[in-house]
Amino acid sequence: MQGDPALPADFQTLPYANPDAPQGGTMRYCVFGNFDNLNPVIVRGALTTARGIWFDKEFGNLVFEPLMQRSPDEPFTMYGLIAKTVETDDERNFVEFRLDPKAKFSDGHPITPEDVLFTVRMLREHGRPMYANWLRPAVKIEKVGDDGVRFTFDETADRETPLLISGLPVLPEHAFDEKTFEQTTLKPVIGSGPYVIADVKPGQEITYEKNPDYWAKDLPIRAGMFNYDRIVIDYYRDSNAQFEGFKKGNCHIYLEGDPSHWRTAYNFPAVTDGRVIKETFHTGAPANMLGFVFNTRREIFADRQVRKALSMLFDFEWANKTLYYDAYQRTGSFFQNSELSALGRPASDKEKALLAPYPGEVDPEVMDGTYRPTVSDGSGSDRKVMRAALDQFEAAGYRFEGRQLVGPDNKPLTFEILVQSPEQVKMAEAYTRTLGRLGIAANVRLVDDSQYQARKDGFDYDMIIGVYSASLSPGAEQSYRWSSKAKDVNGSFNYAGTADPAIDALIDDIVAARSREDFVAAVRAYDRVLISGHYVVPLFHLPEQRLARWAFIKHPETTPLYGYQLPTFWRAPQ
User: Fold this and answer.
1) Over the stretch 524-566, which tens digit does the pLDDT of each residue have?
2) Phi, psi of 162, deg, nearest 5
3) Would you list the DSSP string of 476-522?
4) CA 194 – CA 217 distance, rounded (Å)
5) Of 23, 45, 289, 404, which residue is most buried, by most CB within 10 angstroms?
6) Picking from 141-150, 257-266, 296-305, 524-533, which range would have the lowest pLDDT averaged per residue?
7) What's the chain's average pLDDT?
8) pTM for the model
9) Would you call 100 helix, strand, or coil by DSSP?
10) Which of 253, 218, 248 has its CA nearest to residue 23?
11) What is the pLDDT of residues 162-207, one digit of tens each?
């Protein structure tokens, strides 16, 4: 995205993979949920597609593959896979891929430019919205020679567009019926990846077997990757049953995100005698932003000062000590723990120049680097914090009437927090506990997944708990989260309902940056505007990744920039 690739053209293996990893054996994963679809790119069944087929950030792309492969050891760099070469100009007005003549699907059919053109057509007509967004700037797509495909862009393209397109899957035209493509299916799909779908038990289990004729098995980009002969993914409807399955050895890895569970649940014999290993991994990636998201489309949250006051009232110190064994760290930035974060850094001259057209957008303490989320005394009723929050409310025209906080419209300040799980209920109740002390009536409503998804897609909520994933190369995805054009698009990720010219301009600056220096300045300025907008009540993050594994599952010594990569793990011979 900026600068040069980290690896030379003649690299022999990825730095985080072990090219000598033993091959063979079965890996069993366990996941929560169910599935009823094997086509991972269509809108229908998007939430119930079997894991591992495509775009699986944990298990890898087992069946479908992209033109180029992203390296998780760099902010945003793509290396050739199905595409043997790539060409673009300095302005990135086009990108042309030449396909590897060895590339073929698992049924032996060679991968052709026609397959790429078919894929583009299907993604535009029936694919998930992000694919159409990636492809929108491509006004001309054509076959070039016997093995090439060229994408020509209009003025809406940016420097990220060719990288996004290089990450598209390639689907076999001969193996799909165009008339029924948009329908969910349980018929095993055919791809070019290292595995084929061997067995399907809908909603319960899917089994992948390694393709012995996998076309890319000897490429450096695949050395030390996908080391199992067989991968089985078991589905559980209950998280307790899922963990019990791991304890019994029915699955071999457990990805742990609950610090309370991490501290209290691993007292079974296999941990004590060393057959199960608890492990932490440190990464260079930013922490995700978890927070209560204000829907600013609602009048009660339209005032930034009100949002700021409400943000002060989440008592992190009390919640972390009482509910989470002090396992979490407080989040204050959308790119925390990385060079992209504005937290603790005064704005540079480059940042000030980017922000100059938008006076008042950034709080003074955020601009000079002294901002931190409110710190309480951990008692659960810090009077100093509540007094400071009340001062903010009073400046916004609020007052007490009896035991209620009443706004300028003479209505009590009350709102609903929409949640979808017991864990979210616990977080929300920790928040409402403090709000109630200041006369604010916040109600927690737990709804089922289908209702939650429908209300979220239609922005039918006052507040939700949202997670904004972070990377070292934020780009076009920020537009779908925060831009004016996404505000009124049902199903977009603009949960907060932001429509701010400063945000729009800074997103453009981010994707247009050519040097890492300019990019970092643009992202930090953007971070300052998001922080100062008080669109979320920042919550917390774990300082490391946590994973438990049976001891016969091994992994390389090197952890890449974005954390452990399960496709590089292997099973020790027994």
Assistant:
1) 999 999 999 999 999 999 999 999 999 999 999 999 999 999 9
2) -65, -35
3) THHHHHH-GGGTTSTT-S-TT----HHHHHHHHHHHH--SHHHHHHH
4) 8
5) 289
6) 257-266
7) 95
8) 0.87
9) coil
10) 218
11) 999 999 999 999 999 999 999 999 999 999 999 999 999 999 999 9
- HEC string for 139-206: EEEEEECCCEEEEEECCCCCCCHHHHHHCCECCCHHHCCHHHCCCCCCCCCCCCCCEEEEEEECCCEE
User: Cα–Cα distance between 172 and 427 in angstroms, integer?
Assistant: 45
3-state SS, residue 543: coil
**Taking a C-beta distance cutoff of 8 angstroms, is the pair 122, 181 a contact?**
yes
Residues 6+ apart with CB under 8 A from 450: none
Amino acid identity, residue 66?
A: P
Contact at 8 Å (CB) between 560 and 11? no
Structure tokens at 412: 């009590």
Strands (E), 60-119: 68-70, 78-80, 83-88, 94-99
Kindly report the number of other CB atoms within 10 A of residue 267's CB atom. 8
Residue of 382, 299, 366, 283 lying closest to 332 (CA atoms) = 366
Residues 29-58: tens digit of each pLDDT: 999 888 999 999 998 876 789 999 999 999
The helix (H) or strand (E) run that includes residue 276 is: strand 276-281
